[in-house]
Amino acid sequence: MPAELLSLLVVLETPPRGVAFAIQRGKAGSATMVNPVHSVGRDCLFSISVEVKKKPSGAVDFGGPLVQGPPGGRFVYILVGKYAGQEHSEWGGRIKVPLEGIAPAQVEQALRRDLVLQARLEGTAKNGGPACATCQPIDGWTVGKRGSC
After folding, report:
1. How far apart are the C-alpha atoms of 140 and 117, rounded to whole Å?
2. I need a labelling partner for 96 at 20 to 30 A (CA). Which of 21, 105, 122, 126 fits?
3. Adjacent-strand bridge partners of 94
4. Residue 30 burial (C-beta neighbours within 10 Å; 0-12, 13-18, 19+)
5. Looking at 26-115, which runs of residues are DSSP E strands?
C-alpha cells in the first residue's frame, strides 16, 4: 500500500525571544533546515507533512525526509539556536518530537477528513533557555482543523 501524506502542526509555546528554530530534513551530516523561524516571544508554529504507511495489522509507520529514528520510535527534530543556523547564539541543540503517541485512529480521521494532527510543546526549559532534548506533547497529539492550534 502506498504512503499517504499526513499534515502535522507542531507548536512551540512561547520560546525565548531571539532564538532560531527550524525543522531538520535528512540525517546528521547531510541535514538541511526547513521552516526556519526566529522567536519573538510568541508561539512558533511548524506546519509539516510526513509520509504514513498503514500496515495490515492496523498499525501505522511514519517516513519521509523529515522523519528520524527506527520503526516504532519515529520522531521529528526541531533544530535550536546554532543548530538552526544562528551562528552567534548562546544556545545549540535539538528538540526531539516523538511520533509514537499518534494513534492509528487519529491518522485515519485526519486523512479521511483532510484535518491536521497537532502537538503543543513547552518552548522554554526550566533554566529559561529554549527547550531541548525529548519534548512530549503537552496534551498528546490531537486532531484539528487546518490553520488552528
Report:
1. 10
2. 105
3. 79
4. exposed
5. 32-38, 44-54, 60-63, 75-81, 92-98
d(CA 14, CA 7): 22
Pairing outcome for strands 116-122 and 4-13: parallel
- Count of CA atoms in the C-beta half-sphere (13 A) of 11: 18
Identity at 83, one-letter amino acid code = Y
Please answer whether residues 46 and 95 qualify as being in contact, where contact means their C-beta atoms are separated by less than 8 angstroms.
no
pLDDT in tens, the chain (149 residues): 678 999 999 999 999 999 999 999 998 778 899 989 999 989 999 999 999 998 888 899 999 999 999 998 999 999 999 999 999 999 999 999 999 999 999 999 999 999 999 999 999 999 999 999 999 999 999 998 865 44
Sole residue written with cell 546554532:
82
